[in-house]
Specification:
5-stranded parallel β-sheet, single chain, Rossmann fold, 4 domains
Amino acid sequence: MSYLVLARKYRPQKFSEVIGQQHIVSVLKNALKANKVWHALIFSGMRGTGKTSIARILAKTLNCLNLTEDFEPCNKCDNCIEITQGTSVDVIEIDAASNRGIDDIRSLRESVKYVPVKCKYKVYIIDEAHQITDAAFNALLKTLEEPPSYVIFILATTEFNALPLTIVSRCQVFHFRPVPTSVIFNQLKNVVIQENKKDKITDDALNLIADLSTGSVRDALSLLDQILSLTEVYNVVNISIVRQILGYTSVEVVHKYVELLTTAQPKLLFDYINEIYYSGIDLLQFSKDLLEFFHQLLYKKVSDINSSVYNVDLFKDKFSTEQVVAIIQQLIRLSEEIKRVEYPKTLFEIYTLRLTHQYKEIDELIKLIEQQKEVQPTQIQQTQQSSFVQPQLNSTYQLQNNQVSYQQEQQNFQPEDFWQKLLEIVRIEKPLSYPILAESEVSLSDDTMTIFLPNKYLLLSLQMQNLNLEKIIKENFGKTIKVYYDVKQSEKMVFKDTTEQLQQNQQQTQQKTVIIKPKKIQQTDPVVEKICSIFSGKIVQQHKKEDNIQ
């Protein structure tokens, strides 16, 4: 008898043997107990999660001649044996990848008319159903919605979103979940025990196989089948042998590369890349292994989860969380780009250089931020010159000369210069508010400013922009000035309390008030006039070029 692979040998034959899909098994068994099995079902999920296996178990349960009390198939009657072997004429499995056309669906519609030969139900299991064409799906709609009472359709698919909504709405949908790694590990241990290989493979190796299967039981059994063939060569198969056989980079190589990365010395890293490249290590796989290492390191830093492959504890304190995230992002790009380049070694060296800089730059940035927290702002006295200087911004968009004494300001206070400086600051900090203020008149006294806007729409627009001029003046000039808004030749609309406004107006009558009007721009340049004419524009500000300014 030919060898039967583990994935087929240990395929579940009844509901109790299914792992990782208890939420589906319980619903199906309750439906069987209530004798309310739906005529059309969709099993959706990733590969190797038990879609076809449960479809066969359901077909056996519906047609079993000796059904158990807990609604499990007996697997001994003729119907169960034929369905298990795939020879039953009443349980038809269709591969939609090769039978996807409208002619195939027409043949199916014709066969539906005939009653079952031996079984109670005729069950159609359509695998990879998403590959059926739209025309074929349309031909199946009526039959799927109202099949004969003895027909049940089970559609299995790995791409649920590819199914037409008209099909989905006619079926009961069951979503299969990826099987947890711990559940797969326990299943692999049971298989190893039944194969009498318990002492031939370590638990770490089994756990690695479970990790690499990414939720697919079939993939895990296929990998285990391959690894168990080595038990005739090795006394005990450990995790290092598994990684070597499956083409993964050794743990020592990954650890050494990461250790060199912490030194931030590109020359040492480049020499090591040459060494591993000419030793035959696949750089694509190496980049994926590095990605997995930093992924496990991130888990260790965030949730203190121990890794079963790498000793990430050695590097936990050498990388910050920000550095790990940045390196992972670079490695994801590397893993994608290295597939398409002709010179993978060159690309790997380039990304190694980026990883080195990423490590250094983030480390220096963190230190710089910590240093800046300790730095206190210093006061810089304002110079005696009255000429206005272009404000220089720091990280908080404040002027360098943002702290001036109130007495000096009182002595050298020029309302027009003050307003122009304020406009310049608004232009930088609130560029959307600048054109509105530039067209407005200003009534300015020592501690009060009233801005007269051209119309009420600009007033509302300014209000929506959350412009806080009082705060800007306080931060940049050290003056406390109350700011009010008004509309030219209309009823005042202010944002302050009415009583406070009246008191302020009384104070303004006793103070020297200066009216500042918006500067009129002379359009003497014919080129400028032509541009304004073409684009229906206007000049909002004009800068005079000094002779000594380049």
